[in-house]
Amino acid sequence: MLLTAMIGPEEANADELAAGHAALASGDWARARDLFESALAADESAAGWEGLGWSGWWLADEELTIRAREHAYRLYRAGGDDLGAGRVALWLAADFREYRGEEAVERGWLERARRLLDPLPEASEHGWLMLMDADAALNVARDLGAVTAFAAGASEVGRRFGVPDLEAVGLGMEGLALVCRGEVEDGMRLLDESSAIATAENMRLPLSSGWALCCVLSACEGIGDFRRATQWCEAIRRFAERWGARQMLGICRTSYGRILATSGDWPAAEAELLAAVDDMEQARPGMAAPGLARLGELRARQGRYDDAQRLFERAGGRGLLGLGQLSLERGDPRAAADVAERILRRVAGSALLDRLPALELLARAQIRLEDLEAAESRVAEVERVAEVFGTSYVAGRAKLLRAELAGARRDHGGARRACEDAIDSFEAASAIYDLALARLELSRTLLELDREEAGRGEALAARAVFESLGARRDLERAEELLETGAGGGGPVLTDLTARELEILRLVARGMSDAEIAEELVLSPHTVHRHMANIRAKLRLPSRSAAVAYAANEGLL
Q: Residue 2: its pLDDT value, please?
């Protein structure tokens, strides 16, 4: 305040604003906030409030960010500066979704920005509007055609006006959309260019580099290019630590957690996912859903189904697939199929990466329901998608699904070949958990072919991995297979316990696992485990096959 008295309030205010912007440029967010607040105390200005809003954004202060930007918007409008008002309206749109998950409010601010900017001569703000439209199309509507159009327009505006931010993020979002549609080569080419700009050129906004790199990471994670994704995780981590971007670190940790889980380091995966959820819930609650869903997936693999269900429910729409997978695990394939079909109805046919996990879930549910003709169509679709993406990891998933269908058809030779191909693919992708799943499936197949020694060897290898990971549900399956698959000879009804025989009789009456659980005062999961034991002991591929066998033996 002494400096103000010496040089006059207007000059001091201008100096404090300049110092605030300099602090923003250097990443000193708290100092920037203090400088802008001091300047605004002396003389309110739209530029001061806008700068204060950016300070709040980096400090993850929701109240400060939105309050400051709303003040800036009103002052720009009062001063007749529609360009400034439109610019602030764009970021308010993002704030309401990222902080609060309020997509309707986001749309309102986007439309306000459009109405203000459309009549004006083209400027970089028009490119930012296109990026916000692309972001909404990608993360809310999942309209990949709109994403590519808006993102390409933004990068073109960036080239015309010399704004590398627009070019880098525009290319990144366009590339990500192309990859999601299966145009992997073209998409990765754009993503490579985007990352080069993001890491080599001076961005007007520091967040732009992280935004562009997140597009690269999302694409790599989605198609299973885990080695490359790990490298980009480190790049984003360095960026986030340099700029204190907790929200971007949360995005990085969400992806990295999934990569670690797939590669077999579950303790590290759990640490990353817990930190990711904490980062996002503290910094950007409206963006926490992906982390919650990823943590739910890990909890389900650990056999912690109740914890997984709570996480999936908190994730909202992002947790729907996980809830369907839980239904399958708990012995309700009809509910799982309903979830998968619901997801597929709302996902465009061109969005191959979004459709893939739902197609896998539907195929597995149809196999359990013994609708093998329908399952064949889904498996064939998964195989076509895998061929489009061309990565070892996606190929392994398709081969494992083919093996499961072949086993249900009692085509054990075909199942063996598909399992072996899946194992080769997962080894190439360093996907340790999926590799163990494929070895367990191969064990079942080899035992069906009376190759007991080889089958036990595969089961033992799978069991060792599951035990080291803490994958309780899969460990139990491996142990059950080892216990029931080594006896030699054909299936024997006397191998069943009294409880298993009781459950088999109820299955023969057409009762579902849930209905049996209610009848016997058990959990559906316990009934499902008993039924898995029955099928394993009788070496039969399905519920109906077990019932038919028991009927032939005169038990029912």
A: 30
Q: What percentage of residues in the chain have a pLDDT greater than 70? A: 92
Do residues 374 and 385 touch, judged by C-beta distance below 8 A? no
All residues at 6 or more sequence positions from 483 whose CB lies less than 8 Å from its CB, including other chains: none
Q: What is the pLDDT of residue 10?
A: 42
Structure-block tokens of residue 29: 């967010």
The mean-pLDDT minimum among 98-107, 146-155, 337-346 falls in 98-107
List the one residue out of 350, 454, 434 whose CA is nearest residue 394. 434
Q: What angle do CA 509, 513, 515 make, to 5 degrees?
A: 70
Q: Which two tokens stand for residue 455?
A: 């089958």
Termini Cα distance of the chain: 93
- Residues 6 or more apart whose CB falls under 8 angstroms from that of 486 comprise 452, 456
Length of the chain: 556
What b/e string do you get for 329-349 counting C-beta neighbours within 10 Å, with b at 16 or more? Answer: bbbbbebbbebbeebbeebbe
Higher pLDDT, 342 or 258: 342
Quote the crossing angle between the two packed helices 498-508 and 513-520, to the nearest 10°: 130
Residue 356 structure tokens: 């893939």
DSSP SS3 for 488:
coil
**Alpha-carbon Rg for the chain in angstroms:** 28
In a 3-state reduction of DSSP, which class is residue 500? helix
What pLDDT does residue 334 have?
Answer: 94
219 within 8 A of 175, measured Cβ to Cβ: yes
pLDDT band at 492 (very low <50, low <70, confident <90, very high): low
- Name the percent of the chain in helix, strand, coil, to the closest 5: 85, 0, 15
Q: Which two tokens stand for residue 30?
A: 């708290």
d(CA 313, CA 292): 9
Contact 152, 138 (CB under 8 A): no
Q: Are 252 and 272 a contacting pair, CB within 8 Å?
A: no
Residue 474 has pLDDT above 70, yes or no: yes
Q: How many Å apart are CA 481 and CA 389, to the nearest integer?
A: 34
Identify the weakest region by mean pLDDT among 17-21, 255-259, 445-449. Answer: 255-259
CA 25 – CA 508 distance, rounded (Å): 71
Task: Give the separation between CA 15 and CA 8, rounded to whole angstroms.
Answer: 11
**Is pLDDT of 360 > 70?**
yes
pTM attached to this predicted model: 0.78
